[in-house]
Amino acid sequence: MSQPTLATTHAPRIVSLLPSVTEIVVALGLGEHLVARSHQCDFPPQVTHLPALSRSRIAPGGSAREIHQRVGEVLQQGLAMYEVDAARLQALAPHYILSQTQCAICAVTPGDLQSALAAWPAATPRPQVVSVEPADLAEVFEVIRHLGRVLQVPERGERVAATLAARISALARRTAGLARPSVVALEWTDPLIAAGNWVPELIECAGGRCVLGTRGEESPALPFAELEAADPDVIVITPCGFTLADGIAELELLARQPQWAGLRAVRDRRVYVVDGVHYFNRPGPRLVESAEILAEILHPQACDFGHRDKVWIPATPWLPRAA
What we know:
Order of helices and strands: EHEEHEHEHEHHEEHEHEHHEHE
Mean pLDDT: 88
Helix content: 25-40%
Shape: globular
């Protein structure tokens, strides 16, 4: 990550094109300086009044398989996944544009901004583009500190990162010594993708043992036979960009797999669905809440943070009946 090079006024104008970074900017106390967002940025709720400068080429709705196919079609055409409103972006004259380089499918990247920046008006100072790409929890906390430095509030960045890290550590201490069930977190359901990056750490600090995902590494696609071979104690379904209702719909498709009913987690009724829009898949402040969700799922007798039935639910009503 490069050090800040842009001299800004006392009131920086910030465009955030990544939901997790929008949440970080607000956590740093700079929400009032946001002048625009991406179409995906929806938290905290007050950011939704800002103009949305991006749109996806993928039609909304549909199953995981249908979305996967649409993504493949766009990529096959050599198109960017997102379009950015260049004219409006230029008119806003931001000092900073915040983006990411982690996943061209999930959110706007600097590549999606190329045409807008190439045609930047000569009379308007060019904004500083800041891209992030955290791979694990330590890097998520470093992104927070880095953005604090870039946006000229370094003390706030240090404080926010330290507070979140302390909450994660406190949760790990709370679950230490408890039984550690094996857990698979599914980031996508068709094809199956096991959550990697920071999710294995969340599972571990919540008192579980992650299988089929590796800390700091990209989320791996896997054949159903690999899930069957792992046969975890617990399955958490948290598909990226899917609401609770979307996740429940995916359960019906998983149930069509002949091996599904025989999995230990299904037999023991230990399958859960989580809001994948706002939790697990946004590397920002609410990863702490994501870890709390897992702790509630894995150790309900020891952990209750009030998330159940709000952002996660047991999948029991949608599982095949026991023979």
